[in-house]
Amino acid sequence: MYIGIDLGTSNSAIVGRDSEGLRLFKTDDGRDVLPSMIYFDRRGHMLVGSRAHAQAELAPGNVAQGFKRLMGTSSHLDLAAAGKSITPEEASAEIVKTLLRQVEAELGGVEVTGAIITIPAAFNQMQSEATIKAAHMAGLEQVGLLQEPIAAAMAALEGAARRDGRFLVYDLGGGTFDVALVEATSGSVTVIAHEGINMLGGRDFDRVIVDSVIRPWLDAHFALPANVTTLPAYKRLFAVARLKAEQAKVELSTKQDTVIFLSDEDVRAEDSDGEPIYVECPLDRKTLEGLITDRIDDSIDLCRKILKDNSLSHEDIDRIVFIGGPSKMPIVREHVSTSLGIPADLKCDPMTAVARGAAIFAESREWDEAKGRRKSARGSKAVKGEIDLRLDFTARASDQRARLKLRANLPSGGCKVRVTGPEGYDSGFAPFDGDETLPLPLAVMGENAFSIEVVGEDGRRLCDVQHIVIVRTEATATAIPATQTVSVKVAKGPAAERRNVLVPLITKGTPLPAQGTENFRLRETLIGGEEGRFDVEIYNQAEGVDDPVLNLPIGVFRIAAEEVLDPGQRLQAGSPINIHWQMDDNGLIACEVEIPDLGLSIQQKNFYVPEVGHRNFDGEEGAELARAQLDSARQALTETQDALRQKNAPEISTLTRRLTRMEELLENSADAEARRAATEEALHIQQELARLRDAPDNRHAVMLRDLAAFEDAVSELVEKLDRGTVERLNQLGHSAREAIGREDWSKARQIIDQLYATFYNALYEQPEFILGMFADLAGERYAALDKALHDSIVERGMACAENGDIDGVRAAVRDMLNNRMPNQVGAKKVAVLSGLIA
């Protein structure tokens, strides 16, 4: 049996596909979907799904939920009340195990030929790899991935009367939002483009209800501290409040008003005056809709973007298919459809469609390798007899008809061909001239067996009867596009003025699978027996943003001199370094680093460090990480606003609203999920600001502002610089203004980058600057990859500073930078140049 699993943030589902078609496997209490929740008691006993959900109000500290949002991080789910700490991958594995037990409960022992687990389109490499890891932990070996909107698109065509056209899949789940632009032809799905927002879903609506409805009600009725939402004494109150908010949200899909009620026994906490706290808070649909409309508008903006990027209008789209629990809310369906001017298609079950599409896709793959590969859509046979006959045919089709092409070198005289098939199909003998194309009806879903007989004029068979099988499927996917651009960090520019940029290996939208090679050179000489290494750093790159600081690192190959060189052996600067890459149609990339001068190719796991991209959002350091990213975004927003003050750019107000929302979220929350949401959104805001600044109409104002700000900074420190550096800076500044004046934007940006590089290279030689940089980095422990290593470097650097050993402090700065998260934080003065040059 082939298995499709929708591993959701709030709910999960499992569907099987065998020769009899698709089958949804229900939970043990008869529900279509399994709540993605896990409960542990103090003795370590575990409950999953509805039973865990039932315990969430009684013992919220023992329940893990929403862990899909922490996949691909180093955060843990700490269930303090149960004395348990598990990873998001371990929690997800338990959900998968429970889903598989649902299959066993209905069918007994069944062999899983292959399984597909769906992921959001916005999932990065680390999250995708974490999902595969969770599947393996659950005992699934033959398992692959599929983006949720593609699965939904395939399910939307299952049994549909209309199997052609262009439509949008609007997938709003518990934790993520995806939209796909899909073209269907006779049941064959082509995903033209898709986009997603990692941290937008029903759980965000729940949080809005808590922050904007329940919290103000509590403040009006009880004496509570200003930071009540972050205090441990009230953790239970707000955990249960969030569950009640979710219930109210669901109720308001079918009712106009409700009351959110928590008894004092539910809350088990007192206010500052010793009064027992309870909640009895009214909420109506209109109020709820007003609270979440801005988030729905964010999703609509993404739908408009995907249409604009593909030169389409609403008139070019037939319908919107709504997927995911929150999409059942009236405000979502009505507001989205009305705003876009596209009719809604409500025939698909939004809760199970993704799992159904995944099962359809699972059947379309050969499972002779771990992650599977696509089955061929074409088949052929050749047979020798009195004639040489060749058959070319459609091996897989989502339509009710297929084609069979027959070719043969025939003897003189007439020949005939007959085809018989399922449901009594018989073409009868028809003339055959040696080149014939026949339509074949596919009467049944699944395998359709046909027999082909060729006879001579006398009725004698000219070759053995041939048998072929054509599989009719509910839908097929013609191509799976890469959802992210994957790039490598390289240093670019003249030797003394280099800056880091990203060079794509594979670009978003490339049909998968794909492979290729990119050639680079080594920046610095490595000598065996001495300290030294070069990193090949891999990133998910945002569209139009080539600064590594503004993109997401997903892993690194760390190649140390001592591991690849004998003592005294040299690998000279400028030596070729080739990166061979391949991305399978699961969207997972694999790289091999070739060093031709050493005759060496490196792809071993011990060189690859994916954890470089992982973040830990737990505790105070997780909060500091989020605050730092928000501060960086606020600074970028202020600078851009200042540069474009005369232009009244409408994007600024939108980005300001989004950033303020995240700042308030962080201030009012103490959980890892909120910190990750704030951190990701801050990065996305910075990426949008980078694109806004680089827009043709804005470049002149932005570059003049950057140049003026730089000159102000130089003027404050000019007395610390030597005459040669000052003259070089003045010359570059003059050249930059000339380039801006003639609108040579590429040259102007290159010169401004050279200005910064020249300035900071000069400052780097100043003891005061190095001591200041050391102090800044020492205080940013949250940004360190290895916290213990950071502490030891700081201790060493402080000893050097006390002894006046500036070179020792400089070495400590270098080591802290090498132990730092690759894109944290975006100050130019602390950039570590890539070990590769373009």
TrEMBL record:
- What lineage, starting at the top, does this entry show? Bacteria, Pseudomonadati, Pseudomonadota, Alphaproteobacteria, Sphingomonadales
Signal peptide positions on this chain = none
The organism named in the record is Sphingobium xenophagum
One Gene Ontology term of the molecular function aspect: ATP binding
> What InterPro entries does this protein's entry cite?
ATPase_NBD, Heat_shock_70_CS, Hsp_70_fam
Instruction: Please indicate if the UniProt record lists GTP-binding as a keyword.
Output: no
Similarity comment: Belongs to the heat shock protein 70 family.
Coiled-coil-forming residues are: 623-695
Q: What is this protein called?
A: Molecular chaperone DnaK
Print the keywords alphabetically: ATP-binding, Coiled coil, Nucleotide-binding
